């Protein structure tokens, strides 16, 4: 049975304590939010590869509980996956993060294959196509937010597709020592693969087809992004995020919102939902939420979140994937889409 390793075995918030690296005060509800510049990126140690799709593997850092405790200067982190108001689990890779990255990559592949076939839509496919519309728009010119990113695997898939991606995590040091490192490592892998593809294409092309045109053709045929899409980083609580987005002129500007393993507590999911609403572009923005059906001992899960969204009445909330691999309790992906006003 799945249980979070909480600082308090009853799942109650830990004693209020100032986050060791957080931008603000004592609890998740009151900690501030701020943009963290790329220049604060700090190198980490080990890396490994996560297979996302046949087309895409991502490089990700590996941070042990002992290393996380050291980075956060809090020895409780060695024994606990989450300490409410101090550390919210960003150094670990959670199953939902991988599920969501794989789901987004699959939708992109399906969309690309459908585009290549260019066949007229069958009547029964209408709904499926509508569900995938966000994937068709995911690329240069679209803006994506990943809330509670940790490693940021789903956001990395969007970055790979060419979107501008903003990564948000409660803990500033998760962003500086993990997320930024993951973005940099993958970007340089994509750049060198693109350069290699260009080199091969240029070598094979007739002499008139050299230079930029051949490079662009090679990059697009290999499915790699040659130009670095924009990545930005925001630290702090979901409660404070809407104010920061407003200050930066980013409120209601996101086409796609991604979030995984973030609806584990009833209290946190209300803040998360407010942040989702502040992010999404009115009338078209879509959110994908990956989570366990139920988080034993903490009360959150997909049913409670679906109820919250439906009661609010602004978005539809539908299950678009179920992952039941027997390794943990059932996991799902929910899709929130705007309802007509
Ligand atoms: C369990 S971790 C999941 C990390 C990652 N999405 C994954 O699936 O691997 C929960 C994430 O939600 C974020 N989080 C939780 N509560 C938060 C809050 N009140 N405000 C802002 N972020 C929060 C943390 O930053 C943390 O990265």
UniProtKB/TrEMBL annotation:
Keywords: Cytoplasm, Methyltransferase, Nucleus, S-adenosyl-L-methionine, Transferase. Transmembrane segments: none annotated. GO terms for biological process: methylation. It is found in: Cytoplasm; Nucleus. Its EC number is 2.1.1.85. Signal peptide: none annotated. Residues 1-50 are annotated as: Disordered. SUPFAM superfamilies: S-adenosyl-L-methionine-dependent methyltransferases. GO terms for molecular function: protein-L-histidine N-tele-methyltransferase activity. One of its GO terms (cellular component) is cytoplasm. InterPro entries: Methyltransf_16, SAM-dependent_MTases_sf. Gene3D superfamilies: Vaccinia Virus protein VP39. It comes from the Eukaryota. Belongs to the methyltransferase superfamily. METTL18 family. This is protein-histidine N-methyltransferase.
């Amino acid at each position: 049975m799945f249980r979070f390793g909480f600082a308090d075995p009853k799942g109650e918030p830990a004693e209020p304590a100032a986050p060791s690296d957080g931008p603000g005060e004592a609890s998740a509800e009151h900690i501030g939010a701020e943009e963290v510049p790329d220049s604060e990126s700090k190198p980490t140690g080990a890396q490994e590869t996560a297979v996302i799709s046949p087309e895409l593997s991502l490089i990700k850092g590996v941070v042990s509980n002992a290393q996380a405790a050291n980075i956060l200067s809090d020895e409780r982190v060695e024994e606990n996956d989450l300490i409410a108001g101090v550390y919210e689990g960003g150094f670990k890779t959670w199953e939902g993060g991988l599920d969501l990255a794989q789901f987004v990559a699959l939708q992109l592949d399906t969309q690309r294959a459908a585009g290549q076939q260019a066949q007229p839509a069958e009547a029964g496919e209408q709904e499926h196509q509508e569900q995938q519309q966000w994937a068709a728009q995911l690329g240069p010119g679209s803006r994506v937010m990943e809330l509670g990113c940790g490693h940021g695997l789903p956001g990395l898939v969007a970055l790979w597709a060419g979107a501008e991606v903003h990564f948000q995590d409660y803990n500033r040091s998760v962003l500086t020592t993990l997320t930024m490192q993951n973005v940099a490592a993958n970007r340089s892998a994509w750049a060198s693969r693109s350069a290699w593809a260009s080199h091969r294409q240029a070598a094979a092309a007739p002499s008139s087809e050299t230079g930029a045109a051949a490079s662009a053709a090679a990059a697009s045929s290999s499915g790699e992004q040659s130009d670095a899409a924009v990545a930005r980083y925001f630290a702090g609580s979901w409660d404070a995020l809407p104010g920061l987005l407003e200050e930066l002129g980013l409120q209601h500007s996101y086409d796609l919102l991604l979030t995984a393993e973030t609806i584990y507590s009833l209290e946190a999911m209300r803040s998360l939902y407010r942040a989702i609403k502040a992010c999404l572009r009115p009338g078209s923005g879509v959110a994908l939420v990956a989570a366990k059906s139920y988080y034993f001992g903490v009360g959150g899960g997909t049913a409670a979140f679906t109820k919250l969204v439906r009661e609010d009445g602004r978005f539809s909330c539908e299950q678009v994937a179920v992952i039941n691999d027997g390794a943990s309790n059932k996991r799902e992906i929910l899709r929130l889409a705007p309802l007509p006003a």
